[in-house]
Write a structure and sequence with these properties.
Elements (H helix, E strand, L loop, with lengths): L7 H22 L3 H6 L8 E8 L2 E8 L6 H10 L10 H5 L23 H10 L3 E7 L3 E9 L25 E5 L3 H12 L4 E5 L2 H10 L4 E5 L7 H10 L8 E5 L4 H10 L3 E4 L4 H20 L1
Parallel strand pairs: 5-6, 5-7, 7-8, 8-9
Antiparallel strand pairs: 1-2, 2-4, 3-4
Helix pairs in contact: 1-5, 7-8
């Protein structure tokens, strides 16, 4: 298989889910040596991790040749938790119940494994990145968890040009955010969060690319990282505020290093709000409201 490059932020985001899946496989999937020998298996179990490209997705598979997951046990535990699984649900649909919050087979008195522990966080992480995770299993043979992560394009084409300042009232579906960050993982997370709230996303890897986007179209807000190659966020802030046509675009500066003095210096440079990394979605929405309000006030005053 040819070498693959993955953004460091995506690798970081996948670290905890992979650890959780490997822990599930080793602690709850692979049987003890004597059980494996009795079943005609090698005494030493196998866990494989495979990473490959499929179209515009990165796929990560975690396979173990352990005891597998019995749908009968999943149904029994789901019933105890008050979860409804249709009687005619197929095997794949039943298995997806193990990703429910709080789900684990460990509580069953006759369960052979604790599958399900922490798997809700695995799915949440993948969905936050715009991907997903599914599981397939054959009892006695093993289980395979497949994580899929779609590509995010560096830039997105626009078809709309704004002539009024972005503080004007517009329909929510028409609002566009320019996200500037050298990490594709950060751009992905921001894009997914903003799209859930009706924003259209355009992306740039650094300040220089952001300026090219700005010369073509006018966004309603700019969210920019500070430490980037080629042209950093500080230089981008100065460039935007020095250009008359861009003067009223709300700008949110994103940084992992936050202090009162740092925030004040960013506001002095022209930022309207600061967003600390890592952030919750509520923090992002609050920063958007604050930046828009401050820029509207500056434009009116």
């Amino acid at each position: 298989m040819p070498d693959m490059e993955m953004d460091s932020a995506v690798v970081g985001a996948l670290f905890d889910p992979l650890v959780q899946l490997l822990r599930n496989a080793l602690e709850h999937g692979i049987e003890p040596p004597e059980v494996r020998a009795a079943a005609g298996k090698p005494e030493r179990g196998t866990v494989l991790v495979r990473v490959f490209r499929r179209g515009h997705e990165t796929i990560v598979e975690v396979f173990d040749d352990g005891r597998g997951i019995a749908t009968s046990e999943v149904r029994q535990r789901a019933s105890q938790l008050g979860m409804h699984i249709a009687d005619d649900a197929d095997e794949q649909a039943v298995l997806q119940a193990i990703f429910a919050p709080g789900f684990s087979l460990r509580e069953l008195p006759d369960a052979r494994a604790g599958r399900g522990i922490g798997l809700d966080s695995v799915r949440c992480t993948l969905q936050r990145l715009g991907g997903d995770v599914i599981v397939a299993s054959t009892p006695g043979i093993g289980a395979c968890f497949r994580l899929s992560l779609p590509d995010v394009p560096t830039t997105t084409s626009w078809t709309r040009t704004r002539t009024s300042h972005p503080g004007a009232t517009v329909d929510a579906a028409a609002r566009t955010a320019l996200v500037v960050d050298d990490s594709v993982g950060v751009r992905r997370v921001l894009g997914v969060a903003l799209q859930r709230h009706g924003w259209r996303i355009v992306q740039a890897r650094d300040g220089e690319e952001a300026l090219r986007v700005l010369r073509a179209e006018m966004p309603d807000v700019v969210l920019t990282d500070l430490e980037m190659p080629v042209l950093d966020g500080y230089a981008l802030l100065r460039a935007i505020r020095s250009e008359g046509d861009w003067a009223n675009i709300p700008i949110i500066a994103m940084t992992a290093r936050v202090s009162e003095a740092r925030n004040e210096s960013l506001l002095a440079l022209g930022a309207d709000a600061c967003l600390k990394k890592p952030f919750e979605e509520t923090d992002l929405l609050s920063a958007l409201d604050l930046a828009t309000a401050r820029r509207n006030q500056a434009a009116d005053g």
